[in-house]
Amino acid sequence: MKTISIHGIDEEMEKMIRERAKSEGTSVNKVVKELLADALGLGIKKKKKDRRKEFEDIFGVWTKEEADQFLESIADFEIIDEEDWK
Asked: pTM for the complete prediction?
């Protein structure tokens, strides 16, 4: 496999590449190769990290009982009264 050197990368770009590598737990080299492949339309769709757990405190998670109770409480909204549409 060939090696390519890229000179003159500005500090902001380097910082963002390094942060991405750290957050994904991968190497800077791998991040740069993925970015190049994506930019050239050669990228293999990598499986995105499941980040739902990171947002549970914002969105919350219902138990089955809570979901059933909610659906029961809004059941009236599912009924269509034909008279309302005349």
From this structure: 0.50
